[in-house]
Amino acid sequence: MKNMGFQPGHEPFNDFSHIHNLQRNCPEYRKKWLESKKGQTPWNKGLTKNFYKNGIKSGKDHGNWCGGAYGPVSTAAYKALTKKILKRDNYTCQECGDHNYKGRGSSIKLEVHHVVAVSEDHSLVFEPSNLITLCKKCHIATDNYGVKLINKRRKLSKNQSR
Ligand SMILES: [Zn+2]
User: Fold this and answer.
1) Is residue 142 part of a domain?
2) Is 4 within a domain?
3) CA 94 / ligand 1 centre spacing (Å)
4) How many domains does the chain have?
5) Distance 145 CA to ligand 1 centre (A)
6) Which end of the chain is more exposed for a tag (fewer CB within 10 A), N or C?
7) Residue 152 included in any domain
């Protein structure tokens, strides 16, 4: 009774990879498996957004809605602009001067940062003077990176309501 339980070298019992391998690689097993699925209804059949009547609002009515400020950022035009900005800044972080060089690969992730946050001023989204190249590290350190601004705003609105 000493060596009961999970021991080094034991296979985890929830490891189904052998079955997955069969499903992928063994034509006979695959056929059988697919055959067994015939007549079954997929769990998501007929489920559309309209079907989910769980009261979760989307878009403007959702609690996390920030004014749709991130819309233009995901367009192709903005992507092209970020490429231009990266080139303008010579693919170098404007904060710490770090950049990728030969032998280093692309270990430094360069991102384009909005000096004035998009959600603060919509008109500055495509303004090159409002855009700056930062490495990921420096970008995260800015005070309007991602969720930080939302949290900041929540704090502000909380203080105001007090
Ligand atoms: Zn940097």
Assistant:
1) yes
2) no
3) 7
4) 1
5) 14
6) N
7) yes
